[in-house]
Structure formats: structure tokens, C-alpha cells
Amino acid sequence: MSTQEKIIEQIEKYQTIIIHRHQRPDPDAIGSQCGLATIIRDSFPDKTVYQVGSKANGLAWIDSEQEVPDQAYQNALVVVVDTANTPRVDDTRYTKGKMMIKIDHHPNDDDFGDLTWVVPEASSTSELIFDLVDSSNGKLRLLKDAARMLYAGIVGDTGRFMYDATTPHTMRVAAGLMETGFDAASVNRQLDDIEPAVARLSAYVWENMQITVNNAAYIVLTSDILNKFELGDAGTAGIVPLLGKVSTVKCWTIFVQQKDGSYRLRIRSKKAVINELAKQYGGGGHPLASGAVIKDDSQISEFVKKLDQIAASDTGESNDK
């Protein structure tokens, strides 16, 4: 029996299913979580299905989280999607169910769950949810609204199909989702839109970004800067790709100060692998898209030197995301 068949078997077995995703969710986290929840509801109307997590600013148009009572976890199946390691799971109650399934496309550095389906070669977890439906022999139904959510997740995690992890299979999945009849152009516009405050922050980033000798780029966004633009950490997601649009830049990092003075690092690369660098600072992720944390600004200079060394070693050969 394949892993997909085992997952479907457990979905059929449990009356209550609770789906978690990672903290500070992106479109793929919301899309795969809520898409799977919607698919299960459409396929098994008698089951109780929850999607749990803290409020996702700016992504409520995909779908929203629900209040889940503690007692719901008793004898429940818990599914954790798009989450590489346990510290990143949103809502610590994910351990309270009777069984746990992990579905993810990040490198499997933290192999948690009773049943694990991890495919790092996939463009997104939303792509995997489509594959799960496709392998179900009709047991799982993919209708228009769930397809819209999965499509949003794929478009978000592939950078509008620009990243290396976009494969022919990814495009076939996107086409299959579009065939359900949702308004794909509307989803694309929603993902491309930015708030006026983010537009102003974007201008600041272009003006103040730094580029090292070996073409690594970075910008430091302190709390004072974010307050000036009336944005918090969540509002900075829209500016992460900007530095990579510069033709000479090989890899880049956005430093975002947190309330406790630490900095969240959004690390990206066009070709050179950067997730090992992220691991040195308590983070991780994809070879070309990772995150990490430093305790304060005293570590910025050290990190930038290491990022510059990675840029210097870039041979131009492609690495999958």
C-alpha cells in the first residue's frame, strides 16, 4: 500500500479531522491546509473537519481558520501540512490527537508524525494535496473552491511559476485545478496586489538595499522603520522578492526586527544553496528559500559575510528549490 493510500485510509477511518499548518503562514500553508479541509468536507459531509491556526493577515481571501475546542482532539486525526519541523507548527495542540500525519515538501529534517509523506521535489504542499486526490480513485472530490485554494498555494510557492521547483508536473496540476472552473485570473491578481504601505516600503527597500562585492544583497528593517511605514513583520512578505529582481544579485536576505530585538531572516537565492547557512542560525528550509533568526544586530555583519561567501562560490549551475 502506498503512502497516499494509507493517508486516504486514515481520512476514511476518522470522524474528526483537525488540520494544522505552520506559523506565519504563506499562501501554500493556507492553500494546502484549507484546500485539504474543504476536499474532505466535500467528500465526506458527515465528518467534522477543522482548520486551525492564528489569524493570517492578508490571506483571509483564500480561507480562514476556525476555533477548535480542546475536546475535539480526543480520538481525532491530526494532519500537519507544509511544516518542516515541530517548533513551527501553529497551535501546540497538534500533539493531542489520536494519530498524526505529516504532509510536506520541505526537506524532512524533523521526521515527526505517525505517518509521513514528504516530497522535497514537489513545488508546494498544495501540489501534493492535488496528487493525493488524484491517487484516491474517486474517494476524494476536488471541487471548484478547494481547487482555487490549492492553485493559490502553488502560485505563491512557485513565485508565479518562476522558481526552479516548477516542473512539467506542476504545470499539469495547475491546469487540472483550473479545469474546475474557478477564476484563476482573480487569484493571480489577489496574489500580486500590495497594500499602499507595502508599496511605500518597497520604495525604501530599493533605495536602501546593500549589495556586497560578490553580489549578495540585504536590507535591514528595524522596528522603527516598520513603525514608520505602519507595518509589522507580516507586512514584509511582499517585499521579499524585490532584491532578487536586480539582475546582478545572486542571493539576498531581508532582516526584520522583532519586538524582542531579535531579527527574523528571510533568505533567498537564485542558484546557490542557502539552507545550510540558515541552519547555522537556528533555521532551515529549501535550498533556495529559507528562514532563520539572529539574537540582535550584532550578528548581522557576520551573517552578511557568510552570505557574500556563498555568492562568491556561485558557479551559475542550477539547484532545485
Helix content: 25-40%
> How many domains?
2
CATH topology-level name of the largest domain:
inorganic pyrophosphatase (n-terminal core)
Q: In order across it, which strands form the biggest sheet?
A: 6-7-8-9-11-10
Task: Report the average pLDDT across residues.
Answer: 94
Q: Give the CA-CA distance, first to last residue.
A: 29 Å
Number of helices: 10
CATH class of the largest domain: Alpha Beta
H-E order: HEHEEEEHHHHHEEHEEHEEH
Based on CA inertia axes, which overall geometry fits?
globular
Q: Measured on Cα atoms, how large is the radius of gyration?
A: 20 Å
The unreliable regions are 317-321
Computed structural class: alpha/beta
| Shape-level CATH architecture of the largest domain | Alpha-Beta Complex
Give me a quick take on this structure.
The protein has 321 residues and is α/β, with parallel strands linked by helices. Helix content is 34%, strand content 17%.
Give a description of the structure.
There is one protein chain. The protein has 321 residues and is an alpha/beta fold. It folds into 2 domains: 3-192, inorganic pyrophosphatase (n-terminal core); 196-312, Diaminopimelate Epimerase, Chain A, domain 1, CATH 3.10.310.30. The chain is 34% helix and 17% strand. The protein has a 6-stranded mixed β-sheet with strand order 6-7-8-9-11-10. A 5-stranded parallel β-sheet has the order 2-1-3-4-5, covered by helices on one side. The radius of gyration is 20 Å and the shape is globular. The two termini are 29 Å apart. Residues 17-154 form the DDH domain.
